[in-house]
Give the backbone structure.
Amino acid sequence: MTALLLAIDDLNVAQNVAFGIIAFLMIVAAIRVVTTNNIVHAALWLVLVLAGVAAQYILAAAEFVAISQVLVYIGAVMVLFLFGIMLTRAQIGREGGLNNKGWAIGIPVALLLLGLMGYVIIDAYEDTVLPDRGPAPTEAISDQFLSIYLLPFLALSFVLLAAAIGAIVLARKD
Amino acid sequence: MLVVNFLLLAAVLFCIGVYGVIARRNAVLVLMSIELILNSVNLNLIAFSLMHGNLDGQVFALYVIAVAAAEVGVGLAMVLMIYRNRRSIALDELSEMKG
């Protein structure tokens, strides 16, 4: 298997090793997010998954998206989650009753979905090698945003505004 | 790198997220599982963007990040309101709308 991988010319070994290590950490952390009995620990494992996703973006030459991921997810969304946890719970620590009564149904559903998706992905893209491109220039992304994607960009700012106002209205005490 | 690596990693993360949505009872943990699912989709978009040499995938990933931030904000505000009214955020107790 390794010999086969090394035989492909465009394959960068260091990149693959880094990908493998980060992917392993991400999968372990993601499993801990959905299985741990401590909500705060789940949030902290989720930070590891999100940081791993940002690292994979950098490996895939998407620096601007990686920075946005760190700023928005690790910086803002995780703080929201931690506030949500603190405002909705009396004690910090291990806690029972985090799972549904029928939680075991989720395992066959997830495995079936994984088998189906894995089969389709391997069938479709078995030997496709990612080309070794340099980092995407940020001004090219901004050109896209401000030319052909201008209307969705404006719509998105209204979505964010509406979400902010909606969250304030919902969470206000009155 | 093979494109299969990225797609399979995204598929694994997606399935773990789906398991979390099904199995978890706490509303905040369900929101976290939804974040896992959204991130796996983003990973797919970035991989296809690199594969085709086209920046549209990265633009879409940025849209997904922004929409996910909005979703978490509104979702957590709703969870807070439910907690204020019921002193609990267990999703299986929210059955008022059952006919």
